[in-house]
Structures are given as C-alpha cells and as structure tokens.
Amino acid sequence: MNQAVCISTREAAERLQVHARTVRKWIDTFEEYICPDWNERGHYILTEDSFEKLVEIKNRLQEPHKSMKQVREDLLREGKMAIEPSFHHMDESAAAAALSDTEKTLTHVMEAMENVGDMIEELFDRMERLEDHMYGLFESIEDMEHKLVAVSYESVSSNDVQQMFDEIRKKQDQLRIELRNVNFTQRLTSATSEQGLLPRRQKKARFLGMF
C-alpha cells in the first residue's frame, strides 16, 4: 500500500470532527468493513476508501436510536461485512450466540476503556485550568508589586489595596478548588483502572475510602 496516500486516525478524526479515540473505537468495531492498515509503529493508517467507510459509519450512527451493535448488524445483513470464517462451520444459532457473546465482551471492554479515557481527559482539563489559575495568581501578585513600586505606599488608596488583595484571595480560592478536583479525579481514575483486579468487597471499601 502506498502510505503517501494514507492518513492517520488523528487526521481522520480532524476531518470527521470527532475525537481520535472515537475513530479508533469505530475501527476496532468495524475492522472487517473499514479494512485499515498499520504503519511501522503498529498504528492504524487509512486509505481514502477506508476513510469514506468511516464517514458512512458516522452517518449511520447519527440516525435516531442507532448503536454500534445495530450498525454492525445492518452491515452484516447487507453483506457489506462478512462474519469471520470460523463461524461458517457452526450452525446458525451457535454462530449468532458466539457473535453475540463476542460483541458483548467487546462492548464491555470498550466502554470501560472509554470511561477511563474520559476521566483522564477530565484530569488533563482540570490540570490545565489549575495552571491557568496559577498564572493568574502570579500575574495579580506581580501587578500589585508594580503598582506599589510605581507610587509611594501613602498615595495608594486603601480601596485599591483592598481590591488587589480581594482579587488575590479569589484566585487562591479558585486554585484550592481546582487542586481538590484534580486530586479527586486522580484518585477516581486510579481506583477505576484497578477495579477489575479487586474482589467486590475490596472494591466497595476502596471506593468509600475516597470520601
């Protein structure tokens, strides 16, 4: 395959205006239909034909009450996506049951991964907001220092000084809130990623311990 005409999942996501993780999830679910390739690093790459199939999948999923499972069933029924060869050796009911179990497992795994991914994204967003608050706090302090240096302390009105201190306290409060949010999200993400390894009783104790 000529890789010069291929695009990455990130490029496909930008053209589709969705998250790159969403594109990878679609490829994992409809791999037999999309027919992706891989680069030397093991990442998905897509031809223009594969991208057009992604566009079709996106359009189908935008139809009312359409899930990925239903779209997959539609593609199978339309003959656009073939059942794996091993299923042809089973009777019809056994093949349907095996496919259903596989889809349930795949759906469960993808949902779990997506939930963890969403929490990690939320963590990054909160860390960025925290950084913005810190810069704002430093700028307020520097601004107050410049004002105090520019004029004598006696000429600065008490209202101006009080206003500057109020602004700094406000930014400090915002900073504390973001720090608590970041800490909570970190602990929640860690607990969620380890849940599958813990017995039910330990999971409950670990979750309640977060509060």
Automatic annotation (TrEMBL):
Where does the chain cross the membrane?
A: none
Domain (HTH merR-type) ranges: 8-72
Tell me the domain of life: Bacteria
Among Pfam families, the record links this protein to: MerR_1
User: What are the GO MF terms of this UniProt record?
Assistant: DNA binding
Which GO BP terms sit in this record?
Answer: regulation of DNA-templated transcription
State the name under which the record lists this protein: MerR-like DNA binding protein
